[in-house]
Input
Amino acid sequence: MHSFAPEIMLITILSLVVFSETIAARMKIPSVFVLLTGSYVVYTYFKAAVPIDLPHYFDTVILFCIPLIFMGDALHLHFSDIKKHAWSIFYLAVVAVALSIAAGASLYHFDIFTGLSLGAYVSLFAINMATDAVSVQSVLSQFKGIGHDIKVLIEGESLGNDATAVIAFFFIGLPWMMSGQIDAMHAVTEALRVFTVSMGMGLAIGYGFYMLMKLFSDKRGELFAFIIEGYLAYVIGEEMHVSGILTLITAIIATKAWIDMDLKTIEEAEGKKERGFLHTLRLGSVVATTKERLEYIYEMAKEFGYIAAVMIFFVLAEIVDLEKLWIYRNEIFIMFAVTTLIRMISMAKFAFFGKTIDSIKPVGAEGWFILTFSGMKGALSIILVHMIPADFEYKEFFEAVTTGVVILSIFVYGTTLWTYFRFFKKEKETKLFTH
Output
């Protein structure tokens, strides 16, 4: 007798996506609330709807979903926005994350989590400082009144933040945690190597696919090209023992940036020919795609991201153990409170101290509030905690705390933003940057 497990799984995933979007639209709540809750209910109480042994295929599911989760967010960033807010995004994605992990690890001296080594603290905070692109987009897409510049910062952070957290975890925290010691200079050098090589390969792959897309002019082919690019960049990055996620993000953003430059040049030139070395080098007169086709590509990529998110939420449902969550309830609330406080302090740079650096503009108290509570955790945190070796004695603790923080961040942060925009903020969208 034939097994229809793949078909049933696809029906379940697509049904959850459609159901969550419909309920969210009618109730005017973030769809991620319904997705997360629905995934847990279906996985726990309707086993027939998920006939695939997810724990057995966990690694396969994760590797399949990662490119889809990051691709949509990377495609949505415009080159002009990245150029305008480069230092702000760098601060959010690299400096703030590194300082946050260091601040969290410093709690080791207070022995808040008994038994954990300093390396374990670094790993724990690297895992729980990573934001989730799909959750953030799902929540913020429901609200009006968020300035474009704030959206750019949030999107840029949700991508770069993840890459930084991954590097901090795999190349510093995890080796330190498992071996009990680390060579600080070697760790810093290794992290810089990973950043440099990952971004270099990403730029090369991005340019290659940008040129490739000039050979055809079909929105479906262009969408598939971006998907292939995302998977290829991730695989090459991982095979080269650097950051597949950073390679993927850099490649997609690079391709999109060159496309944006071509479209802007064509608009400004109004049919006039531009003669320049860089323009000639990238065949600027040959259009890789159009704005209309890019919108289609982005919308489809976003839907693929939601499908991948459902798969990750099923995996989350598998590791959710209510009894263990209750046992570690104090540690979960402490971790959630500490990460929230650290985020509030790191985001204060934009609210109160931005004027000290012209390239990092202040956003005011409201912008600080939005940036603080847009730090929802999700898929990447679940992925990272799973990567901890099974023989690590505190893995159960890591899984319970991370699961609890992910759930709390989605519902508490999401509800806080929803309450603010639903009942307190009534203005139309305006820029929040103060000059």
Q: What stands out?
A: The longest helix spans residues 148-179. DSSP finds 18 helices and no strands in the chain. Confidence is low (pLDDT under 50) at residues 429-435. The chain has one domain: 55-424.
